[in-house]
Design the sequence.
């Protein structure tokens, strides 16, 4: 059966974006700039990407305005905006739990829970995330958009693996 996998980068102090919503700080310490870490391996294991409208908007306007970076994957954007589907990009106004339950029953590779924080925290609260891969970047932002809410029920995790490259530490956990 397909797994729902959170794969995301955060600052050492727990932020996925700065206070302006920017991610220009993403990157390592420069000690091994040719090392792309776990992303190439990870992307081979997924064929579906789930993201919120803010994350989608940031990708198409700032991060990759000339081409969709998840070409070849079915992408689902959770939004209240009325937008037309485009090739592999589907705009839906469905609760995250309903969408993930449906997708998990279909054949295919794993499902990538890409972002943002709101849909990630909804999925975590519903206990439907099977694996968390978090890349911890060597920066303290001090403020911004937190990956995890502080008022949610505690979750106990089991460490599956860790690795480091270019000053970044990837940790992989599974809920107990």
Sequence:
């Amino acid at each position: 059966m397909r797994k729902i996998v959170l794969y995301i980068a955060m600052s050492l102090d727990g932020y996925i974006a700065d206070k302006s919503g920017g991610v220009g700080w993403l990157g390592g310490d420069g000690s091994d700039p040719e090392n792309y870490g776990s992303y190439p391996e990870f992307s081979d294991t997924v064929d579906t990407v789930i993201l919120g409208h803010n994350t989608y908007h940031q990708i198409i306007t700032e991060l990759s305005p000339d081409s969709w970076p998840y070409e070849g994957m079915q992408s689902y954007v959770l939004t209240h905006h009325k937008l037309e589907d485009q090739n592999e990009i589907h705009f839906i106004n469905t609760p995250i739990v309903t969408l993930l339950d449906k997708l998990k029953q279909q054949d295919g590779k794993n499902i990538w829970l890409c972002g943002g924080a709101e849909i990630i925290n909804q999925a975590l609260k519903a206990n439907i995330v099977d694996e968390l891969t978090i890349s911890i970047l060597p920066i303290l932002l001090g403020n911004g958009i937190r990956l995890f809410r502080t008022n949610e029920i505690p979750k106990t995790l089991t460490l599956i693996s860790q690795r480091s490259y270019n000053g970044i530490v990837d940790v992989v956990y599974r809920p107990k």
Strands lie at 4-11, 15-17, 46-52, 74-78, 89-92, 110-115, 131-137, 145-146, 157-165, 168-175.
